[in-house]
Write a structure and sequence with these properties.
Layout (H helix, E strand, L loop, with lengths): L6 H4 L3 H20 L1 E2 L9 H7 L10 E2 L2 E2 L5 H18 L3 E3 L5 H12 L5 E4 L15 H4 L3 E4 L2 E2 L4 E2 L1 H11 L3 E4 L10 H10 L3 E5 L4 H5 L13 E5 L10 E5 L2 H15 L7 H36 L3 E2 L11 E5 L6 H10 L2 E2 L1 E3 L14 E5 L1 H5 L4 H15 L5 H12 L14 H5 L5
Parallel strand pairs: 1-15, 5-6, 5-9, 9-10, 10-11
Antiparallel strand pairs: 2-3, 4-12, 7-8, 11-12, 13-14, 14-17, 16-17
The structure holds pyridoxal-5'-phosphate.
Pyridoxal-5'-phosphate binds next to helix 5.
Pathway: Amino-acid biosynthesis; glycine biosynthesis; glycine from L-serine: step 1/1
GO molecular function, one term: pyridoxal phosphate binding
Organism: Pyrodictium occultum
């Protein structure tokens, strides 16, 4: 490990320098030297970054704006009501709770309210892209709600509507969940909502992955099609701080869910997220459509380019993808675990993933890779860049070139793409400092 050189740093204790140095190396590698294709990640704008670094990160504000259990929150309250209003406008939802500190916490709060212990929920199986919080191993299990598997059609890579409707009518669950972690094509919200409502069940739409596409109007807003409540992460296609959110048009659901967020699942809601989330919401209002449009174009372009390079890309007969994701079957290249590691050695960061036809226990070495283009889109990449990325991937996984050689080229390539787009051009340190404490 090399020292970063400053003489003042070298006077610090070694155990401190180590931590700082690892952090610096992480920042340099992941921010400037790699092509990041993790589908659940993104970066904030420079302005949102600087708004994040505020004194609010040290404070408590249990309760709701202007009805807190602590003093000293008058400006936090003002920011939080603006977050609620801005996110409500973007999602066309009258009621927003931004306090869940993650998408999982948002799901926990909603599941807890809609399903009592011992009740049933109909949700897609894990191989079909369900999130761990949808399963007996995660939040659903912790709340002792039974997971009834939603019928899934691997051929169409989507919920099997006819079978799903029948199952919901038969099982009469407390709630149904749509939305997923592997998510190429929009789920049939309208049909499933009608079936759920016909047996008195609620429909939860988990928009963790596609929140930014919904805000940018390139993905159907589930609330327009009958979903009762939407949960999401605020840091995947929505390029905000890591956190969660709940949105609904149903006042009754909002009131009950809010009483579950605090005090069941959140005490302090990590207040420094709020200004950064508000900044991102305003950016999405002005630039979100252009961003989301380029994201879906890039995903399609990456899928087509990878297929042309000889990869097995899922969903060819369906046009590959309508989201930010592309899914590959890399069994011919040695499987998901091996492929993901080789790409990492080449400075291309992806994650291995179960494919719809994998057994659930193949989780350590699944057949697939899941790719997302949203972050590289934020850094200004377009369709032609997707062809270059596909070529890098072919050289590593099909031509079996030395990944370290490709890594050097990726590092060089990335140098042109380090500025965040689709945000206000307030990106000098001086401008940023207006909002910074330090
Ligand atoms: C990522 C994800 C979540 C929540 O993730 P957090 O890391 O807790 O924000 C929930 N549901 C789905 C479908 C997801 O992909």
């Amino acid at each position: 490990m090399q020292d970063s050189g400053s003489s003042r740093l070298s006077t610090l204790p070694k155990e401190l320098r180590e931590v700082l140095e690892f952090t610096r190396m992480h920042n340099r590698w992941r921010r400037f030297e790699t092509i990041n294709l993790i589908a659940s990640e993104n970066v904030m704008s420079p302005l949102a970054d600087s708004a994040y670094m505020s004194d609010m990160m040290h404070r408590y504000a249990e309760g709701k704006p202007f009805k807190r259990y602590y003093q000293g929150t008058r400006y936090v309250d003002e920011v939080e009501v603006r977050v609620m209003r801005l996110m409500g406008e973007l999602l066309n939802a009258g009621y927003v709770d931004p306090r869940p500190i993650s998408g999982t916490t948002a799901n926990a709060s909603v599941f807890r309210v809609l399903g009592a212990c011992g009740s049933k929920a109909v949700i897609a199986p894990v191989q079909a892209g369900a999130h761990v919080s949808h399963t007996k191993f995660g939040t659903l299990g912790a709340l002792c709600i039974e997971h009834i598997e939603m019928p899934y059609d691997p051929e169409r890579m989507n919920v099997d509507v006819d079978k799903a409707v029948k199952l919901i009518e038969e099982v009469k669950p407390s709630f149904v969940v749509l939305g997923a972690s592997v998510y190429l094509f929009p789920h049939p919200v309208k049909e499933v909502a009608e079936a759920a409502h016909s047996v008195g069940a609620k429909l939860v739409y988990d928009a963790a992955h596609v929140l930014g596409l919904i805000a940018g109007k390139r993905w159907r807003n589930p609330l327009d099609h009958g979903a009762d409540v939407m949960t999401a992460s605020t840091h995947k296609t929505f390029p905000g701080p890591q956190g969660g959110i709940i949105a609904t048009r149903d006042e009754e659901i909002y009131k009950r869910v809010s009483r579950a967020v605090f005090p069941y699942f959140v005490s302090n809601h990590h207040l420094h997220r709020l200004p950064a989330l508000a900044v991102t919401a305003v950016e999405m209002k002005y630039f979100g459509e252009a961003y989301a449009d380029q994201v879906v174009r890039n995903a399609r372009a990456l899928a087509e380019a990878l297929a042309a390079e000889g990869f097995k890309v899922l969903g060819e007969h369906l046009g590959y993808t309508k989201s930010h994701q592309v899914v590959l079957d890399v069994r011919p290249q040695g499987g998901g675990a091996k492929a993901a590691k080789l790409l990492e050695d080449a400075n291309i960061i992806v994650n291995k993933n179960l494919l719809p036809y994998d057994p659930p226990d193949a989780i350590k070495d699944p057949s697939g890779l899941r790719l997302g283009v949203q972050e590289m889109t934020r850094f200004g990449m377009k369709e032609d860049n997707m062809k270059d990325i596909a070529r890098f991937m072919r050289r590593v996984l099909i031509d079996r070139e030395d990944p370290r050689k490709v890594a050097e080229e990726v590092k060089e390539y990335r140098k042109e793409y380090t500025r965040v787009h689709y945000c206000f051009d307030v990106d000098t340190i001086e401008d940023g400092k207006l909002y910074l404490l330090y």
